[in-house]
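P.,

For your records, the input lines for the assembly:
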Amino acid sequence: MIRRALSKVASALVFSAALALPVHAETVRSYPFTKAAAIAGARFFADHCSACHAVSSLRYNRLAQDLGMSEAAIKQQIMLPGGANYLKGMRPAMTQGQAKKWLGMPPPNLSHLGRALGSRFLFTYLTSFYWDPERPSGWNNHVFPNVAMPDVLAPWGGVYTKDGKLLKPGSEPRRVYLQQVADVVAFLRYASDPSVFERRALGRYVIGAFLVLAILAYLLKKDYWRDIWSGSRTTDKPSVGTEGSRTGRG
Amino acid sequence: MEKVEHDTTEHLNRGRRRFLTAATTVVGVGIVGTVAVPMVASLEPTAAEEAAAATTFNLAPVEPGMQVTIPWQKKPVIIVNRTPEMLATLKEVEAKGVLKDPDCNVPQQPPYCKNMYRARQPEWLVMVRICNHLCCIPHYRPKKASVTPSWLGGFHCPCHGSMYDLSGRVMKGSPAPHNMAVPEYEFSKDGKTVTITKMYPKAHLC
Amino acid sequence: MSKFGDWFNARFPAREMMREHLTEYYAPKNFNILYYTGSLLLLMIVLQLISGFLLMAHYVPTSQDAFNSVQGIMYDTKWGWLIRYMHVDGVSLIFALLYLHMGRGLLYGSYRSPRELLWIIGYLIYIMMMGEAFFGYVLPFGNLSYWAGQVITSIIHAIPLIGPALTTLARGGPGVGTATLERFLALHAVLWFLIIAALIALHILALHQVGSNNPDGIEIKDHKGPDGVPLDGIPFHPYYTVKDVFGVAVWLMVFAAIIFYAPTMHGVFLEKTTFFRANPMVSLPDVTPPWYLAPYYAMLRAVPNKYVGIVLMAAAIVLPFFLPWLDRCRVRSSRYRPVYRIMIIVMAVTFFTLAWVGEQPPLPKYFLIERLGAVIYIGFYVLLPIVSTFEPVRPVPERVRS
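Structure tokens returned:
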């Protein structure tokens, strides 16, 4: 079931290029991908998305560690009451059985979607819903035709028709609304690649260590190769080599 | 003159070369050693393993005086709901002076269980039921005089006769060296369930 | 020397080996930057062995759990992301190095007599690497892995007579599933890897038998000093070992930068569709091979006939074996062969254009590029015997230029 939903999303990816351009000029590129954005996104996700969507690969304790949140904060702000285990993956409030009964098929697990579809697509998708009375849910999407999910973010962003007319304004100014969407996308990107902040923090030290080694090795190489450039090598065959031959390689 | 200069530069060069060789070697070995740490760490138990270790048990069916033994990480863990009479025997045993380590100085339990009850809450004993001697599973003998005439209640190992009190403290004359191990655990807020989270790392099983 | 050293050496020829392969192996003194690739390849393969071992400690080769176990490495294993990215990005970097290494051979005529066997063993390693990469590619069992497994095993199907039986043998069942994963893991980690390791040993032994070529393509053994040492040769150790330590340090900076800041290289080193679970019911819209195999895939697609396409692809893979005999010029290095040099540049551009077009969706607008690329690629080998017989050459110096 989840597979089917995922593959549907995947096919939407291909069609999206051929379909109408996104309604909004803004892209996710205007919003930096930071830990703060991922934390804000995680809170928003817990409140409004994890009623239906699981992020089963991401454990709550890992979330706490990666984003620098306390166990208490996670338990209070992120974990849903009842059933969620701090050491296990993020689970939806809804059970699989309920999902089947209410929605026909369970909403997809979002563990890897941030990477599989990319932030740009997710941002455009989340901001491309429009009101379509012909659909059972009343919702449709420019980049994902006949989508099953309703526009959960409409209360903040407002309701639009297919040709972009505003039917009902949202509660937030557009700038705030888009920031919220970008935060959720940032969280999904982090969730699909949980080592990202750790990697970014560590990378410069690793590269720095190799840089130090490179500089030392370069000086050593230059020192040895002075023999070659001065032309002394061919006359005194092994004498230049023996010194280093025992210590050179380490 | 030129010859002399050549000699001194050669001498300088040799020192410089030796220094650079040593420095490159030290940095290189340092990097290899540092990289080896995460490589080896990747073989440690995974988060999935740790999550699977946490077992939650419902305490409601265990009435005072009853015990239940549950499998946890392929080890038997006993949960005893001790009555006030049973708890009173702990002091009696202490007074007799037959315990090897009455104050639980050997870290066979998490710090929060370093008391004569060896528990977070006096009535609830949560303990790995494995004899400290050679890994047998001791019998639970709560009745007085059920093992020896002066027996106050406790655990008796069928293999080599090690004896423990109702807190799992080992008695003098037993082959077992230490008290039985207590894992790390916590009660839920309402006190209706207990979650055994992991083995106390310093505790010695057998 | 030391007493233990003497004791040891009486039982194992350590000093002789050290002399033969390091301190008295004389390499030309005019190696350029392309000559780092050999030692870097050796380093990368050792790193693949280490990271591969650590990955295998967590991997479960069943169609049910393979995907989850690989994602478990990314989420639940301590430093799991590091070992997986090392392994994944290592593959792309190995192929980048292989192409530079082989390109160097083309540029300086390193495949020419007496180094024919050296070239053939090396090219065999490259072909084995393609297989190794393919087996490894299927193991994570994302949807791309699944479909890559399907497509490649069905290419075997086209082999006359034994094809269908061979396909079943490769898959271990009617389709790509648990049996396939199990045998691919066994091949990837044991048999195939051991063959590659043995071929690498043969490659190095063959190199030390004939000696290294150099950018000038001149035989340094033709000019020896009174002590029998080539005048333009220098002991590999310490001169090239210290140089290689420098090369390794710089290379690892690049490797670390990729692992820590762009581990998927925007979908080039680790494709987006590998993050969907394998699904036999949904063929992904863009089943394209990784970049390093894409040129052959483009040639496969260039022909609107399954069998001719496969024959063309097979020819493209096999032709370089014959390079030592197709080139008839008396000069080796392209430094002194202006026409040959242009041919190599055209060939390199064609190869990477084919790699690019092989990554594109199969649309008619790319057919022209694919066909043109295939013609130029094959044309290189067809024209080489003719061109090399008549091409003009510049005067070759007696000794290497430094």
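Two observations worth noting. Residues 2-41 of chain B form the longest helix (40 residues). The CA atoms of residues 34 and 53 of chain B lie 30 Å apart.

Regards
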